[in-house]
Structures are given as structure tokens and as C-alpha cells.
Protein 1
Amino acid sequence: MSTIENQSILQLRDVTKIFARGTVDEVKALDSVNLDVYDQDFVTIIGSNGAGKSTLLNIIAGVFPPERGGKVIINGDDVTNLEEYRRAAYVGRVWQEPEVGTARKLSLEENLSLALLRARPRGLRIAINKKRRQLFCEALARLGLGLEDRLDTPAGTLSGGQRQALALVMATISRPAILLLDEHIATLDPKTAQTVLQLSDIIVKREKMTTIMVTHNMEIALRYGDRLIMMHEGRIVVDMGEADKKTLTVSDLVTAFERAAGEQFKDDTILLSPR
Amino acid sequence: MDVAGSLLSMSWYEGLVFGLVAIGVYFTFRVLSFPDLSVDGTFPLGGAIAAVLIVSGVNPFVATLGAFGGGLGAGLVTGLLNTRLRISALLAGILMMVALYSVNLRIMGRANVPLLREVTSFDMVAQILGVKSGMAVSIGFVLVVVFIFVAALNWFLRTEIGLALRATGDNEQMVRGLGADTNKTVLLGCSLSNGLVALAGALVAQNQGFSDVGMGIGMIVMGLASVIIGEGVFRPRGITSILLACLGGTFLYRLFINIALRLGMAPGDLKLITAVLVIIVLAVPYVRKKIRHEWLPPAVRW
């Protein structure tokens, strides 16, 4: 049953991804994954290295298609074979490295202007006008980092955290259907990571974005978002909603993981947050 | 005219016309991060198209525009080799440069087409103004052409498409993530770049009175030298200042070359001197870091 509030934004049906097929290095990165993400869900995904988290995001963003038979449906449209740049209308993304999300040599307002035109036809109008500059100014001012005074400086002069905050605004300014946060705080120092994480949370809630956040950190996965997914060897092994999440601790999560994965959890150091 | 005056006016003219080449090179190397070597072939292509059209009786202004169009087409092919067939940018440019040598010979039917008896764009301008052809007319006409194209580029690079083009060389992954087809922006950029270079070839051929199949040799290195000098001397920030720095860099480079020629340097040594100049400028930051024992990244190989 889908009501207005409970509309399915993203549907993955039988999505499999095999890399280096037919060679000794063959890897099944995703194994018949089925997933429904509903309007305004804030999903956190955890899993050890090689669990398929990044592959999942790449499939959603259209970096590569799933194997034959798999389906990716966003907002009711089958986008399975839509190229990445055409899919940008549906998907906003913040990458792990700040260098990937922003253009170094372009100014903040030029970066934002590129993002504002996400999947809209780009024409021969001047890219930055007074109205747009006003919009960028307001969007940056809400971050509280003082970036609104540096609209014409190159993005490359910002710090990693500032660039990631800018990337966050760029990913959301044109309101795509889904926001993908791909371990977007992993390369930042702990304090900056905290700031960017809080900004992400504020923006997701204010803009009522449907969000999928990949993280290595169980603590963060538990504290943020209203739904938690754990992946292991290309499959979704845990999928719990807000009610279950609230009472959960990191050790519950480890137990759940062990049970679901059906094997002793060997490298928990990767998943547990260093406190 | 005194020596300094003639040196300066020669350099003014050359700075403007070869400035178009520098802007073209800037477009591919710096804006797109696409080291396009087809420039050595598209420069004589422009000369060849303009010369053959003028000899066959076409209006010289139309012939010049035709050369611009031919350059656009050649650049498009270079871009297609890279985006559709996944041939590396460097190799795609070299392939085009080699292929264009034969194409240019075919267009002209021989290695050299003289234009001395023909009415060129420069003669037309002189006629319209009712003055004799000469350096002043050459500079004036080239100035107008360069102004029109630079103004158009200055506008274009600020448009939504132009912005996507500039971002492509900076961060291709991001541009795709934001919904612009970077294959198309690369095609557009390569095309425009080679169009400008061919336009310069057409103007040079008309002004010197002949088109020659070998007139493009070393054009890419000359363009790079001009861009590097322009960036180093003028330290441009923003689109307009970058375009002007390309012109300024070309003027300084040409002035330097003209003075060297006047001092008795053999014209044949010109390319070697240019290459050495580029090598020195490119090596300076590396050597400086080495002396200071700073960390050095591995060599860039594109």
C-alpha cells in the first residue's frame, strides 16, 4: 500500500553486479538485492569493506548498470539503463573525497550554478545572475560557515570540511529525488566530520530529502537517520526501522550482524567507532 | 619607420593573430585538460581552405569564415576519436595532425598556393577604407576580428553551457554527476579551439600571401609558450583577464622572437629556441622545489 506520505521513491529489484566476470578475479559485488526506499526516509547503510555499499550507490547513481534482469526505479520511472548524467535529475550525491564533489578552479557561485542546473537543459543564458547569486548567498549563509562572503573565490581554496559542506549544498540545491551520501565524512578530521554530519542532518530534515547515507561507523549509523541497513557480501542482511533502531546499541548491532551473516564477525575493528 | 617601431608593430600584428592560436591552445590544454596536438594540422588547414576558396573566386571574408568552419569540423573529429572511440587525447591529436597533412595537400592540390595576385580580406579592407594595404591595415583588421571572437568567447564561457565546459576539465566526474554530458562539452571545446586556430591560419596565409602545407609545424609549442608566458606575466584571474593574458603572452613571445631574429638569429633556429623556452619555463618550478628539498609528485604523463 502506498499512501502519499509512504510513496516509494526508490525501488531496486533483483539487482546483481558482477565485476571481472569470467576471470579468476570475479567478484559478486551485489547479489539479487531488493530494496524499497520511501519518501523522506533517511537510510543509513553499514557494512565491512567489500560488502557492496559503494556498488549499491553507484548502481543507484547510474555509474554502471546492474546485470541483466535487475531493475532500478526512481519516482516510478525505470532508470535502469539511463546514463549517469541523465540520472542526475533524480540523484544528488556527495562523495567521500571533497575534491570529487566540487570543481577546484571554479568559484563557489560557479559551482553552485552548475549544481542549480542539475539535469535542466543548459542554454546560452549567462550562468550567474542577481537572482541566482541571492539564492546561493542564502543557501551558503544557512551553513553558518561564512562561505556566503566568499562567493567569487575558487572552491580549491576552501578546506576539506568547507568543500564538503559546499558539495552538500550543491547536491541538494535543485532538490533531486534522492540524496546519496557516500562516506562523505570519512576523510575529514573528527571535529570537522561532526560539523559536516550535523549540517547534513539539518539539510536533510529541512529539505525533507529522501537520503541514503553510507558509513563505516556504527555509532553514526545508529544516531542518524530513521532506518538502518546492514550489508554483507553483496546482500542486505539487516533492515530495521526507526522503532527498532532507537533501542539498539552497537553491541546489539554486532550480534545482529553475526546472526545474519551466519559467521563469526572477524574484523569488527573496521566497523566499530574508535571512541 | 624606425627599428623599434617596426619591431613593435610586427609584434602587435603577430600577437593578435597568433593570439587566436594561443586562446585555442588554452581552451584544450587548460580548460578541457585535453592536450590536443591537432593544432599543428588545423592551422595549415585554415590556410589551405581560405587560399583555395579565394583562388576559386569566393569572397575572401566568406573564405575566412569557411576556414573557421573547417577548423570546427576537424576539432570535432579529434573530439570524436577521444569520446566515441576512447583513443587517448594525446594520440587522437597526433593522428589528426598526421591525417590533416594529407588532407591539406589534397585541398590545395600542391604544397603551396600563392595568393599574391588575389584579393585577400586585407586588400578588401584597404579598398573599403580607401587606403593602401600595409601594416596599419593588417593590425586594424586583425584587431577587429580578434575583438569580435574574444568578445564572443568571453560571453560564451559565462553562459550555462560555457560553465559546464569550463568545469569539464576541472572535474569531469562532478560535471557528469550534475547532469551534463561531458562527451558533448569535450566535443564543443575541441571544435571551438581548432576553429580559432584555423581562423588564425586563414588570416596568416592571406597576410603573408601564400598558404603552405608546412606552415603549422611547431604551432602547438608556440601556442603553449604564449599561454605560459601570459599566465606567468599577467597572473590572470577570471575569464576576461585569461583571454587577454593569452593575447598579451603571444605579443611578448613574438616580440622576444622578433628581437632575436633582428639580432641575427637564423629563422631555422626559431622552433628550437621556442622549445627550449617552454622547457625552461616548465622546469623552473620543479627545479626550484628540488633545490628547496620539497616533496615532489611523480611526473605527469596524461
Protein 2
Amino acid sequence: MSGTMLNVGLDAAQLTEQRSKVLRGFARGDRAFSLTTLIACWTVVIILTGVMVALFRGALPAFQAFGWEFFISQRWSPPKEIFGGLPAIYGTLISSLIAMAIAMPIGLGIAIFLTETCPMALRKPIGIAVELLAGVPSIIYGIWGLFIFAPFLAEHVNPSLVKFFAPIPLLNALFANGSYGTNVLTASLILSIMIIPFISSVSRDVFETVPAVLKEAAYGLGCTTWEVVRKVVIPHTRVGVIGGGMLALGRALGETMAVTFVIGNAHRINPSFLDPGTTISATIANEFTEADPGLYSSTLFALGFILFVITFIVLAAARLMLMRIERRLGN
Amino acid sequence: MSATNMDMRLYASRKLRNTVMMTLCVAAAGIGLMWLALILGTLLFEGVTGVELKVFTEMTPPPGDSGGLLNAIVGSLFMTVLGTLLGTPIGILAGTYMAEYGRNSKLTMFVRFINDILLSAPSIVIGLFVYTILVAPHIEFAIPMPGKLFGGAIEIELGGHFSGLAGAVALAIIVIPVVVRTTEDMLNLVPVHLREAASALGMPRSLVIRHVAYRAARAGIITGVLLAVARISGETAPLLFTALNNQFWSLELNHPLANLPVVIFQYAMSPYEEWQRLAWVGALLITTAVLLLSIIARTLGTQRSKNG
């Protein structure tokens, strides 16, 4: 009798000991796991900070050598080690702006079509097709642009553009000399094809957040579809649409391969969109592996740093805008 | 009478405007689909006419010669796998913190913002970053080994030149934000009841996450990883100054590694017809892989939402 009692007592003590051991193990495992996830979280922050620091450190010699003049100088002479960043910065901005001007209406048009008038059965396949366009790697756009699109434009489109704009002052300077296939306009067109899917998929998503009641009320008053879109859907989602547009702009500014193939890589600012130009990313992609260490490669880092700062601002603004619309949705 | 007339005119003009704008929207969709058809059509035509067995059995040729893409295909696969293996755990763990431990905390908000920036940051800039940490500096060190194992020490030499490892790290940096984003979103969708039920049974937090939350969100997380793989298999810009290219067969991580995107870039820009043909074939291979991956990811994603 007493023996079993003793045994049970011993077992209970052992059990408690065992249990507390297991629990301690659990607690340790818990702490280790949560710490690992926290470290992974900070890794993301460290990577972005690292990118910024590395670019700035690489860029410092060039900034010290050229100062503010780097932003306004057009000279690009590797043998003499004189570099100006203006043509690349100008090319980056102008090609992205032209691309946005083309892609924004088309992207919005696709989104309106998909959310308002498209037959239900077609919505999904067309939506997926447009999103597949977003998944095609940029080098594919580049090779297609170089071999197919640029020659086509040079042969069939550029001459008529030049002829059409010739009598119009100012515009004839923008569309002069269409003999090159690889030029700023070609790069902008390729960029616009690349960003259309981004704009349309973000816009479609925000258009779908408009409460059906609002649209039905407008239809009930006798509005046409276009009036509903213009007066109800777009005002209601303006922030999201602009945010999506800026996200696409961020893509266009940083896009490398598609542009490098077709922009012609000339370190000059030509007034005509039909002349070759260059962008920051195209300059880096073309020249980095051949640049001497020293001022040349530091200049390329400086351009990279400027690109990063520009896209950071654009992307941050886009995210803040999209966050605002998400928060409204949450409420 | 005139009032109704004016009403009718106004009505007609509104209707006309509606028809015009809606037609333009249909045209926009038509233009979008036309680009897709044009690009994929040319790619298919140019690529398929160039495909032959040699592409998969021979190395990249010297200028003017004929050959295949074997080393580039293998190098690309190798680097993509390595990049995914490096990036995925970090991405999943960071996403886990954001959805499980620090939901709605200030750190989570901050990291989400930073992660979104990283997600759309220009990939060429990431190439420059990895160049400065893994290609430019020359690092050499030895790990002492007990006894006579490996001759007393393992000597490790890193950097100083372009390498496949640097390429894989650059790709991993692109994988991380994609995986963080989807993991966080998918874990946020897991119902709280599941976690509460597991906790009520006495499961510690880390086991609840690993055995309950991960299992419930598995399809979504895999979708995210597949999308990340699709994204990096076509990335070119970050490889230009990290892995560079290699005309020969090599699987050594500390040396330049052949890869399809850079081969396509160099061959397409070259004046040799044979190289240009191979560039088209490479482009077709990459696009097929990327589109297949995104279609698989999408079907996985929709299956999940049907069940859930």
C-alpha cells in the first residue's frame, strides 16, 4: 500500500520535473523563434539602408570632384575624366514622362472597360492576359523593341511624324530627324507598353472598392456609364489612381533593360524625341563593367544614387497615397 | 416645345459622349491585348524557328560560330535556385514577425513601408549594391579546423571579381520583399480562432505559428515564392555587375557564371546572326518559364480562395 503511494509520489515529482523541463524548452524555443523573426524583419531595413549607404559612399568622390555642376553639365568624356549627369537625368525624366502620358489614359481605359462594360465572361481572361503582360521580363521588351519595333518605327512611323509636325513651330523641333530607329520616343513607347498593365491592374482594384450603392444611385438618376465613371468612380478613387500611376512612374524611372536596347545611348540632350539619348540606368548598364575604378565608376555610382533618390521619393509618395485608400477601406 | 427640344439635344450629346468614351475604353483594352499578342507572337515565331537540340547540349559559342545555351541555362537555374533558397527563409520569417508577433505595431508599419519601397526599387541599383559588398572588396580568411581535417584549415576567398554567388545574393534581395509581402498578407488571412484553439490546447506560440498558421497559409506562401521565382528568372540588370557572364561551363560560385539574361543582352546587341538567333531562343525559354510559373502561382492562389 504505502509502497504504491511512495511510487506515485515519486512519479508525480518526476512528472513535475519533466513537465517544467519541457515547458522551459518551449519557452526557450519560443524566444529563439520570435527573435529570429525579429532579426529577419530588421534585415529588410538593413538591406535598404545598406543600398543607400553603399551608393552614397561610391558616389562621394564624383560629388566632391564635380559638385553641383554635375547636375547641369552635359560633358561626358571618360578619357579626360570629366562627367556631367544632365543628359542621363534628363533622358530618364523625359522618357518616363512621355511613357506616363501614353500609358495613363490607356491603362485607365482598360480598367474602366474591365470594371464597367466588359461582359462578365470576358472579365477574368482579359484581366489575366493584361497581368501576364506585366509578368513578361523587361529584357523581352528590349529585344523585341530592338529587332522588331524600332525598325518598324524608323521605316513607317517616324518619317510621317516628321512630315506631319514640320509646319508647326516648336513641335517641329521635337519631332525632327527621324532617321534613327533607336531613340527617345521608341524607348518611351516601349516603357509605356511595360507600365500599362501596372496602371490598369491597380486602377481596376481601386475601382472595385467603389460601393455599388453609389454607382447605382447615379445610374438611378439617369447618368450614362461615362458620367458614372467621371463623376462618381474617379472622384471616389482619385488617391488610389494617382498612387497607382506613381507606382508605375517609379517602375518606368528605374527600368533598365527595355530602355538600354532602344534608346541609342548618346550622352547629349537633343531637342528632338526622334534623336538618340540615354537614361541613368542605361548609362550604368552599358558602361559600368568597362569603367575604370576611380572617378568614372564613382560617377556611375553618383547617377545610381540620384536614380535611387528620385524613385524613393516617387515610390514613397505612391505608397502613402495607396495606404490612405486602404485605411479608408478598413474603416 | 423648345424645352423638350433642348432636352433631347442635351440627351443626344450625353449619349454620344458616352458612346465615344466607352468605345475608347474598349479600344484601350484592344491595344493592351494587341501588344501582348504581338510580343508573344514574334517571340514564339523567332524563338521556335531557332530551337534545335544543340541549344540544350552545347555551350555558348564564340563570335561567328554555332553552339547552344547549355551553360547559360544551367547557370541561370543554379543562380535562381540559390537566390530563392537564400531569400525565401528571410522573407517568410520577416513576414511572420509582421503578421504574428508585431501585428499593427510601429515596427511592422515601418518595415512594411520599407519593404514596399524595396519591392519596386530599380533592380540595377541592387546590382550596384551587391557589387560594392561582394565583388569589389577582396576578402580572404581561413577557418581553423581541428587536427588534420582539410589540411588544418578551410581557406575561404571571396570577392575581388564577378561571381555567381554575388549574382545569387542580388537575386535573393529581389526575392525577399516579394515573399515578405505575400507571407504577411496570407498569415493575416488565417482566422484567429485557429490560433486560439491551438493556444487553448497549451501549444506554445512558436509551435502555433509553425504547425497551425503556416499550414493554413501554405498555398498562399508557396504562391508568393513562385511569383518571386518568376520575377528573378528574367532579371537582367542586377546580374550585369555581379555574375556577369561566362562563355564556358562552370558551376563554381566564386567565378563569373553564365546566365540566360546576360547572354541574351550581349548576343542581341552583337552583330552576329548566330548570336542573335540564340538570343531569341533564350528569350523564348525565359518567357515560357516565367509565364508558366505565374500561371501555376495563379491557379494555386485561386484554388486556395475557393477552399477558404
